[in-house]
Specification:
mainly alpha; 2 domains; about 60% helix; Acyl-CoA_DS; FA_desaturase_dom; membrane
């Protein structure tokens, strides 16, 4: 089998049923799997998914304090901007376009470190990166770690149930995991340490970097706006941390084909371009699935791409030494031919067939 077929730890209910079709576990099966996989007392190799949700739980008191004592129109505006736009855009810049797809390259480690820590640390890179490679390899197919066809909860708890790497990789397979993670700057385990902890990420360094990141931002926010701003922005991060787990369910049409002519040109999977994620985070998802390695996914006019603007700015400043931009290729292969055909015919089925032919 290909490496990406078995790099992730399969859930107890499997990726497929006995007929080879997508396994659609019940709600109780998903919850039982979740509780089993965050149980660090049963197996210390569960530490990373436990750690991922521990961060979320630690953010909740900030949100509660904000809601009870510091909520007003100004702090709500700050929370909206930070939680929806800053956190969302940073996730696209760092986890998505850099860590996973290497769509651009930093000139040195300093700028990589700055970009990595631009916001409150929430999502472990390892859980996102390796599983996202599998997602593109098996998009909307059995084995896709957040396959929307299996339902909302299947996607929402995927970071625990479906995204961690397998715990029984051999040394050669683990070297391939290391290759996919090496450029991120995350401190990695040796194969011997992986055999002990079941992860690429080092527990000591993961916890230490989390604590230092939170202490830094706590101090910065406190100096700017006292506890009101601290609880406001850490609370906003809590909302984002929960909300982002819903994205792939929505971004793949809730498991249904919802492509629109002239909007979603990739019909190979169920990914769709959504206005809100596009505007606040540069996540034009159907465009991204057309050209995953592009540093820009807002190709069409009025497709605002804040993540791309940051990458381009960093390039102008000399902090980014290289990036890939597939906008012109998108125009040449899809947008201009589609518009040319659209001006010649009113037959929508022809336009649909054109988009499908190009995407496959």
């Amino acid at each position: 089998m290909a490496f990406l077929d078995h790099v992730l730890q399969p859930p107890s209910y499997g990726w497929t049923d006995i007929n080879g079709n997508l396994s659609r576990p019940t709600t109780s099966q998903i919850i039982v799997e979740f509780l089993s996989r965050v149980n660090i007392f049963r197996d210390r190799k569960n530490w990373l998914p436990f750690f991922s949700w521990l961060k979320v739980l630690c953010l909740i008191p900030f949100f509660v304090s904000f809601a009870l004592y510091y909520m007003n129109w100004w702090t709500l505006i700050c929370a909206f901007i930070y939680g929806m736009i800053v956190m969302g855009t940073h996730g696209t810049i760092w986890h998505h376009r850099y860590c996973t797809h290497r769509a651009y390259k930093f000139r040195n480690r300093f700028w990589r470190f700055i970009t990595q820590n631009l916001t409150i640390n929430v999502i472990p890179e390892e859980i996102y990166v390796i599983s996202h490679h599998v997602h593109h390899y098996k998009s909307d197919q059995p084995g896709d770690p957040y396959n929307a066809e299996a339902g909302f909860l299947y996607c929402f708890l995927a970071d625990v149930n479906h995204q961690p790497i397998a715990k029984n990789l051999n040394e050669q397979q683990y070297k391939r995991v290391c290759y996919l993670m090496a450029h991120t700057g995350v401190a990695g385990n040796s194969f011997k340490q992986y055999s002990c902890w079941g992860s690429y990420a080092s527990p000591v360094w993961a916890v230490l970097s989390w604590i230092l990141n939170w202490l830094f931002w706590f101090l910065v926010f406190y100096l700017i706006g006292d506890l009101a701003l601290v609880t406001c922005l850490f609370g906003a991060a809590a909302v984002w941390a929960i909300g982002v787990r819903t994205f792939n369910y929505e971004g793949h049409g809730k498991g249904k084909t919802q492509h629109r002519n002239g909007v979603d040109f990739n019909e190979y999977d169920k990914s769709i371009n959504q206005l809100w994620p596009g505007l606040v985070a540069g996540e034009w998802h159907n465009n991204h699935h057309l050209y995953p390695r592009s540093a820009r996914s807002g190709f069409k006019p009025r497709q605002i791409d804040l993540a791309w603007y940051y990458i381009k700015l960093m390039s102008w400043l000399g902090a980014v030494s290289y990036y890939r931009d597939y906008k012109q290729k998108f125009y040449d292969d899809y947008y201009l031919p589609y518009n040319k055909l659209k001006n010649k015919t009113s037959d929508t089925s022809t336009l649909t067939n054109y988009s499908h032919a190009k995407s496959t």
